From TrEMBL:
CDD domains: CBS_pair_SF (cd02205), Voltage_gated_ClC (cd00400). This is Chloride channel protein. It comes from the Bacteria. The chain crosses the membrane at residues 46-66, 86-108, 182-207, 219-237, 258-275, 295-313, 345-369, 375-393, 405-428, 434-453. Pfam families: CBS, Voltage_CLC. One of its GO terms (cellular component) is chloride channel complex. Residues 491-548, 555-611 form the CBS domain. It is found in: Membrane. The lineage of its organism: Bacteria, Pseudomonadati, Bacteroidota, Flavobacteriia, Flavobacteriales. It is a multi-pass membrane protein. The keyword Transport applies. It comes from Epilithonimonas hispanica. Coiled coil: none annotated. The keyword Transport applies.
Length: 614
């Protein structure tokens, strides 16, 4: 046993020496250990370990951000007398947006891409490579914005932070595009799981919004990342910070008509929210102002809204908890409505105005210079719509209205319609309320709202923004442009090849003198036999036992082969199915022609789109 352990230790020391000679002498000890483990463990084993490490790190980032913002909110809303709170509602939301803009301009050089669309962009356009700055920039920006009262959510920044952590982890250990995308999604999953203490909802978020085409074995890193993030949240966060609801009614099938109607209500509201958000975004983008002045304008609008309607301050989860706990007076006690005689009519008018203005408060927060997302706003709006619907039903004369249940399923309905994520919404509310017996009403409301949203627009707002920039293809015009592209114009005819009978020494020499990362293995007739990339070759670079190695042993079959007659749209579909960014092209006799890259086709499409739009 001691001899075996000593051999492993000597093996690690040799790896460390070779690794440092390879040019990474500045690598930290724990990085060297993980690099060594990467050479010793199987792919699935290392991905499992990676999922745990990424999950713990992203989960901790989520815990830190939630705790920081909660303490700021608690001070403003609980430790200050009402008269001073009005002053705080005037000053802090304005200050939050302005300070965030100043930080972005001064520290992060104006790089303010945010929200779920930021993750989708990196996956679609940047090979899932996320800047290391995003591992902390989103935390700083969203803590300032939402902590000081911005009417947005922390979950999207947490997801972007987790995605950046996963992507940079994968880059450090030189994992392939597929593994990099998987760990990016695992980081986002852990972030969402820690934010809501809902691991299943975190996984559904990754499957519905971030990942497509992964095989079942690849789900394991997502599972462990979600569990790690959720456990950290449960252990470290205080009870009043957690997104938890303990009061609800038992499901009664006689209440199904309520849920059917609420599904329609939340579906209509979701469409209203999306349209208003888009119009506000376009309005702000057209303002001919400097970033600071734009932030001051947006901050002033937000401060005015928060003074008139305090529930618009921050994420709004305390308001939703007040709905479920029956604390109706608490909802308006800090607003100017407290001076009116309290009646049900008063609360109805107040909530209608809150719902209408929430659709303005959130985009003004985000697009004028703040940082946040639509997770919390959609949940807040859905819960408010559900409570308002329940109060109206009671006023009409209906008895035994399931008020708490309508609040809970209303949150799922609005989230499904705004984010186009019904499964995430269903499991999120089920986990947060321990209401697994509410699956039927959750599914009814979420599906109705989602189908209504799809009827109005087939793709989500985040995807639409990418589609408008040519990052994804969603309509007939896009496909017509793609069919007009000629495949041969995007083939790299200077691709490097090596004969299948060549020696390992010849291969190493070609790597040393060449500038390619992927190589085609061909026979004497030029026919494709396999492919090699640096990830396949790296484990053998420092090996002294090269005599027994051959090209045949280390090459692999390409995941797919492109033919000259394939159209650009077909090729892009093959790229999406395989998860690769470079594939070999052959002629009708299987002779290798060159490699074609997904990036080259996308660049060609964007150039053509620009030409047609001029």
């Amino acid at each position: 046993m001691k001899i075996h352990t000593r051999k492993k230790y000597l093996s690690f020391l040799k790896f460390k020496r070779d690794f440092q000679q390879f040019g990474l002498e500045k690598a930290r000890s724990y990085e060297l250990i993980l690099h060594w483990l990467n050479t010793r463990l199987s792919r699935n084993q290392f991905l499992l370990l990676s999922g745990i490490l990424v999950g713990l790190t992203a989960g901790m980032a989520g815990v830190i951000l939630k705790t920081l913002v909660h303490n700021i909110h608690y001070f403003i809303t609980h430790k200050v007398h009402f008269e001073y709170q009005i002053l705080f509602y005037i000053v802090f939301p304005f200050l939050g947006i302005v300070l965030t803009t100043m930080v972005v301009q001064a520290i992060f050089k104006g790089q303010d891409r945010k929200g779920i669309s930021a993750i989708l962009y990196e996956i679609a356009q940047n090979s899932s490579i996320v800047s290391s700055v995003k591992m902390y920039s989103q935390i700083v920006q969203s803590a300032i914005t939402v902590g000081l009262g911005g009417s947005a959510g922390l979950e999207s920044p947490i997801a972007v932070t987790g995605a950046a952590i996963g992507s940079n982890y994968a880059q450090t250990y030189r994992l392939s595009y597929k593994e990099r995308t998987l760990l990016l999604a695992a980081g986002a999953t852990a972030g969402i799981a820690s934010a809501f203490n809902a691991p299943i909802a975190g996984m559904m978020f990754a499957f519905e919004i971030l990942l497509t085409g992964v095989v079942f074995t690849d789900f394991i890193p997502l599972v462990v990342a979600a569990v790690c993030g959720s456990l950290l949240s449960r252990i470290l966060l205080q009870e009043d910070i957690l997104f938890r609801f303990y009061t609800r009614e038992a499901f009664d099938y006689k209440n199904i008509p309520y849920y059917l109607l609420l599904g329609v209500v939340t579906g209509l509201y979701a469409r209203y929210f999306v349209i208003v958000s888009q119009k506000v975004e376009h309005f702000i983008q057209k303002l001919k102002m400097s970033p600071i002045r734009r932030a001051m304008f947006g901050g002033a609008v937000l401060s005015l809204l928060c003074v008139l309607f305090p529930p618009l301050f921050g994420e709004g989860y305390d308001t939703i908890k007040a709905f479920t706990n029956g604390d109706t007076l608490e909802i308006i006690e800090n607003s100017l409505f407290r001076y009116f005689e309290f009646r049900n009519f008063t609360i109805i008018i107040f909530l209608i105005l809150v719902l209408i203005l929430k659709a303005f408060a959130t985009p003004f927060t985000i697009f004028s210079g703040g940082n946040g997302g639509n997770f919390a706003p959609s949940l807040f709006a859905g819960g408010t719509a559900g409570f308002l619907f329940a109060v109206v039903c009671q006023q009409i004369g209906f008895k035994e209205v399931p008020v708490t249940n309508l609040v809970l399923v209303g949150m799922a309905g609005a989230m499904s319609g705004i984010l186009y994520a019904p499964l995430t919404a269903i499991f999120l509310i089920a986990e947060s309320s321990f209401g697994y017996d509410l699956f039927i009403p959750l599914m009814i409301v979420s599906v109705i709202s989602y189908l209504m949203a799809k009827r109005f627009s087939p793709i989500s707002p985040e995807l639409k923004s990418l589609a408008d920039q040519g990052k994804i293809f969603t309509n007939k015009h896009d496909k017509n442009l793609l069919f007009s592209l000629r495949t041969k114009d995007y083939i790299d005819f200077q691709s490097q090849t090596i004969n299948v009978n060549a020696s390992i020494t010849e291969l190493f020499e070609m790597i040393k003198n060449g500038n390619k990362n992927t190589f085609a293995v061909i026979d004497d007739l030029g026919k494709l036999k396999g492919i090699l990339n640096l990830d396949d070759i790296r484990p053998y670079l420092f090996s002294k036992e090269t005599d027994s190695l051959s090209i045949v042993k280390i090459m692999k079959a390409p995941p797919a082969i492109i033919h000259q007659e394939n159209k650009a749209l077909e090729i892009l579909q093959i790229f999406d199915d395989t998860g690769y960014w470079n594939l070999p092209v052959v002629d009708e006799n299987n002779k290798f022609i060159g490699f074609i890259s997904k990036s080259a086709i996308l660049i060609g499409y964007r150039q053509l789109l620009k030409l047609y739009s001029e």
